[in-house]
Specification:
Blueprint lengths: L5 E7 L5 H16 L4 E7 L3 H14 L5 E5 L3 E3 L2 H9 L3 E4 L8 H11 L10 H8 L18 E2 L2 E3 L7 E5 L1 H8 L4 E2 L15 E2 L15 H12 L5 E3 L4 E3 L10 H7 L8
Parallel strand pairs: 1-2, 1-3, 5-11
Antiparallel strand pairs: 3-8, 4-12, 5-8, 6-7, 7-11, 9-10
Helix pairs in contact: 4-5
């Protein structure tokens, strides 16, 4: 494929995870080595819909960029994963990553299922963890009908995915605009922060046909592409990705005390 001109876009609320910073440094060093021109844009706002719309409108307006790499501030993957997305050569590609929700009972079931095997035959811990999490993409059609993915080269198609690490060609926003799926907001273009932008709404929340369900901003963006534009979303299933966040660790030390100090007196 023709060498891309890449816009790296990151919505933040003023901070990013340290591993994400390392990812960005590694990525930009790799882009420079390969002679790939790139730009970098961030936007800080409390409303993620506004932030994502701002960045997508920048991409739409600055036509020198052929592709946009959306990176959230809490994601890490090997920077080489971006080259997998680029080399795959589709308009919409993303990396599968776990939600920030641990299924400990699921992990326990997987460990217990392996317990009878000789140690050398047990599933690696990393694989057990990968199988235990819920991933941030949609596994059924909008409306709940079963989804049958297409599969090619370690990628599958999905109806919607999280936008934490996502590569888009210029065809995605331009098609949404041409089909009237991303409406223009001309009054917003008068604001100084939006000066010079063709500001459009790509991410506002869509609802189900019966009005009983509101989709997330990432689902809504994907729905605009798959449902209204007839596009495909290709998901990289092979790359290991890390989704960083805060985690509460609950414990009662009395449950471990006898293991740490076997000789301790039982009396208080």
């Amino acid at each position: 494929m023709t060498k891309p001109v890449l816009l790296i876009a990151m919505p933040t609320q003023g901070q990013i995870a340290t591993p994400t910073a390392k990812f960005l440094i590694g990525l930009t060093q790799g882009l420079a080595r390969r002679g790939v021109p790139f730009g970098f844009e961030t936007y800080e706002f409390s409303d993620i819909v506004f932030s994502r719309n701002q960045l997508m409108s920048i991409f739409l307006t600055r036509t020198q960029f052929t592709h946009m790499l959306c990176v959230d501030g809490d994601i890490y993957a090997d920077p080489e994963a971006v080259w997998r997305l680029i080399a795959f050569g589709v308009d919409f590609a993303a990396i599968a990553y776990p939600q920030k929700h641990a299924r400990w009972n699921r992990l326990r079931q997987l460990i217990e299922a392996d317990a009878h095997l000789p140690k050398a035959e047990r599933t690696p811990t990393e694989t057990l963890l990968s199988r235990a999490w819920i991933y941030n993409h949609q596994k059924a059609e909008f409306g709940g009908a079963p989804w049958v993915p297409k599969r090619r080269g370690g990628f599958i198609t999905v109806p919607a995915t999280g936008t934490g690490l996502m590569l888009l060609s210029r065809a995605v926003p331009e098609t949404m605009v041409a089909k009237g799926i991303a409406s223009r907001k001309p009054r917003l273009e008068h604001a100084p922060i939006h000066k010079g932008l063709a500001y459009h709404d790509f991410f506002s929340h869509l609802t189900s046909p019966d009005g009983g369900l509101m989709y997330g901003e990432d689902q809504s963006f994907c729905m605009r592409w798959t449902h209204f534009c007839g596009g495909d979303i290709w998901l990289d299933t092979e790359t290991t990705a890390v989704h960083y966040g805060t985690k509460a660790f609950s414990g009662r030390y009395a449950d471990l005390l006898a293991e740490d100090f076997p000789a301790i007196d039982d009396a208080d």
